[in-house]
User: What shape does this take?
Amino acid sequence: MKPNTFLPSCPMPHADTERIQLAHGEGARLTRRLIREELLAAFANPFLNPLADAATLPELGGRLVMTTDSSVVSPLFFPGGDIGLLAVHGAINDLAVSGADPMYLSIAMILEEGLPIETLRRIIRSVKNAADACGVSIVTGDTKVVPRGAADQIFICTTGIGRLRPDADLGVQRVRPGDKILISGTIGDHGLAILSAREGLDLGNQLGSDTAPLHHLVANLLESGADVHFLRDPTRGGVAGVLHELVEQSALAIRIEEAALPVSPCARGACELLGLDPLHIANEGKLVAVVGAESAGAALNALRYQLLGNQAAIIGDVIASPSAEVLLANRFGQVRIIDEPSGAPLPRIC
Amino acid sequence: MKPNTFLPSCPMPHADTERIQLAHGEGARLTRRLIREELLAAFANPFLNPLADAATLPELGGRLVMTTDSSVVSPLFFPGGDIGLLAVHGAINDLAVSGADPMYLSIAMILEEGLPIETLRRIIRSVKNAADACGVSIVTGDTKVVPRGAADQIFICTTGIGRLRPDADLGVQRVRPGDKILISGTIGDHGLAILSAREGLDLGNQLGSDTAPLHHLVANLLESGADVHFLRDPTRGGVAGVLHELVEQSALAIRIEEAALPVSPCARGACELLGLDPLHIANEGKLVAVVGAESAGAALNALRYQLLGNQAAIIGDVIASPSAEVLLANRFGQVRIIDEPSGAPLPRIC
Assistant: This one.
């Protein structure tokens, strides 16, 4: 007789063992089991294995660079990525644009009671795969559990440690009128992917997050010998946010050529449909670079040499005035001031 | 004519400016204003001031120690402390018990839409005061805002970086039968303070959290020349949690003398009233030290020399068997096995 496929053929697991319980956060046996069976099993390395309160690492042999980032994205899984990839890439990219080679990560997770353990496992696998691909170790972590309703499924805070590259000399103070502005590829993909996943919009099935680690791209750019003055990854606030921050801090201005902005046809269509400006939409795998004018060609070549940068473009110039303004020139030469959006946030995109 | 005291004498502030809005998290102008006016104003230091995506720090000149910790305590303010103090002391103490001198902190905050800005300011002041008192700089940070109901007011993730002290040689592998176990002061105060604040219990007005930074106490202990084998701060899971972790990892056993445990009269009364065991209750400013037997006196003196350790006590011994068990001997010499609590968690105590 065939087994009844409508009834489970083995005893139902006790529901509680399939979901995060408050006891997973109380610091006793269940916490240690969670850490050992789920986290240590995935991330094992000599620094994490002792499960001490902190990781003892080798001497760094260079200047230390430190960054921290919380991931609160909703939904947790979306076209092109998930919260685990974002959590790793966010820290890697903040180190990369600061001119550092990423080395170590810490992971602190806030879990909502009732989170399916299988969801947690998927995220942990994703974190592990991303960390492995980036060549960094997860050396320490923390797990807290809050009651149902006190958080939304899972938040992840990653902190990254890197070593400053000797060839990096980056900062707003190095930006000069005449510098060229480059972007490493198409813009707006991440924010649109989140939006379409969250709202159930059909924006075309080619629309996926661009989440990716930028450290190899940055290394290639710096090793090219191009005179790189400033790097930033245009996440929340989009490319416009990065440019506004730059002009505010430097008291210079920026002029962007609209026709030079790489936007995928799919993203362009979605933006037109929704009335959004791709300059304002978050990216998770793009690099804005400001380089000396005479280096612009070398920098562009260095970016395009890698798959991740093969659609890189020179998109504009740093100019002296009007101070603290970002200008956009359309293909007819008409220039308008790009303001920052406000009052219409798209929350929880990263 | 006297102004009508029932009407405001100046225009009412727009309610939105008094509370965290989603736009504070979108990465544009409001985010930058929040960071500049609230965070940078409080934490200003040469590493944070550039507001880059990462902090570029000097060479460390020693082995790097890294720890991370999320604070999700509820309520945010409680007798003896608040979430800001816990967030700083948690990272400091994890570094301290790993034998490191704390140097740098990062702060990542997840804010719930609607959080009063004044609440955030109080917490920021608290973080700043604690960091100043501990001699550490807050060098980088991150701020995310989630919609109402997706988090509970504020969660803080702190990551700490320290330099390993050359005089520290700590680890479970150094623990031997015959070693003495010390505690730096009274136990159970933090968990009871949270419980009384949360449940509105009147457990006596002397009951306050013991939250405190332990790095000076640890430095004093290590500099005393005592043969220190293992250090841990008994937070979640209490002293029992630390001891269970130790016996599980070492396959040794521990015997604690109940009469030697320092418990304040107020905490003892509260535990008796509530049927709780002070060994299971969280602390946030206590140190468990395992030292070679011949060093126990010197270690005790070193702890007692500081105000924070003036109630330190030798509370038990490491013994060879029964493997992986923690035993408690009462004042009549009767011995019982101390189990870990489970199924009755007190969530969100740190």
Chain A has two domains: 22-164, 172-337.
